[in-house]
């Protein structure tokens, strides 16, 4: 009965289903046709309608009026078209009358499409064009001329595009394939090459394989749109050495955000059983006692006690004001991860390479240094074009030994040598991040046996990335440290992360070298807002390795002081036997947990260019944020209205 209403009785059931599918696919074209008809002096048979007839004729061999009245009501067609198509140009300014409608730019094109069933099909591509501004509307982007940039062609991504182009030769894939790639990255730490091989093996029929470049392009197209949604706009910071996550500034949960506590709260919980209580005078007495017993420098004693200790940080408020809001505190954790891309071989340069495959220099140094000897400071021209040393026999022999140093060593062999060197050197101190692989090389003429030979035979690497997250694990931002994890670089990273959000600075910031960072801030800028907004503490693991004679570290950066000076950092809990114990209020090792998660992507990141490295780091931070957010929601650790009412009032 259904077929008799809409189709002639001679039409088969398979043809009817195919016709219905075709109608669904041409709804956007029907809407564009009807929208163009609303403008004055438009023919009834527009280019859109002729294109629709062509598509139907090519698909079924039917007459060109296949989609005329009688198939479906015009209301149904309009409702579906409005939800699937963009009818007017969104770039042209709205003027009196009807907005600028979109025309057909050229004839329809046949392209290859990998659909969500992992099957290659032939699809018809229609491109809309605005005659007023010259913008071209593709299914996944809008290409237009930017007037403020000398008319250069710019692109505006369609964030909810159903199809993505992965090759300039007309190869498109369904968005579902990109979601599969995202899941493979999360679950299996898959790279572009491995995903391309898996996808090629899974394609039905195996008529055409996905290449490495197409897999990479799919990754870029998909995650560019994901970042656009995640940041509420596509950030320019995605291509820089620093990155922040604006949405994380407003995050709060029971793991990272606590109500403000006072010494009276500790006493109420049973903290008065501990004999030592906090007073400012007591802290000064302890500081002077430690300095007097262990240091002979009287000027240093006077400087620490008379300048730093009384002012930073300010003493706690002992009691809560009656009827006032309690307030809240948040704790952030920061740490470095030894991952980085390759940079210029010149020590003072941090610029990226011109050639990331086998290059050594950036664009500023490649012209001069590529034609001279790699031994610094020889400066003689290379003996033949493409060589790395001059005619000096000692330089040639040293480079030969350098290039052959790993020839017979496998990766397990390198690990055995590193373990042996560690045992020999006694390099087992607590908190040691990594160990270097030392290779014995012959002495070079003019250098002593213990002098380091400075050369440019290989590109250098970014020392580490600095990650910052809340104590619940939600990333806040990240940055690069190029030559070392120096304090000025670390300070510049956190300054940049909170530059646009000064009121969202954490109450506490845990860092493995927080005491030296605090010294650096005080000595460089005594009016820094960090000194009044944040207390710097050393994370628990590294604190046990710090010197007991460091007064600033012991009294100002203690992660869990037992003298009651920081009630926000400790909790009094009672075990099953009724015994009360002092525990830490926050998890200070979330940075280590994030770094452990990043280990699965270390091999990929080390082989990337600087631009792809920054982009991939932003993607990983976004994925880790979403994973952690789901875990927090699953455990029901969100902050409710009662918390905020008590923290900041109604």
UniProtKB/TrEMBL annotation:
Highest taxon, organism lineage: Eukaryota
One Pfam family named in its UniProt record: CxC6
CxC6 like cysteine cluster associated with KDZ domain segment(s): 333-400
The CxC5 like cysteine cluster associated with KDZ domain, residue ranges: 92-202
Protein name per UniProt: CxC5 like cysteine cluster associated with KDZ domain-containing protein
Organism expressing this protein natively: Rhodocollybia butyracea
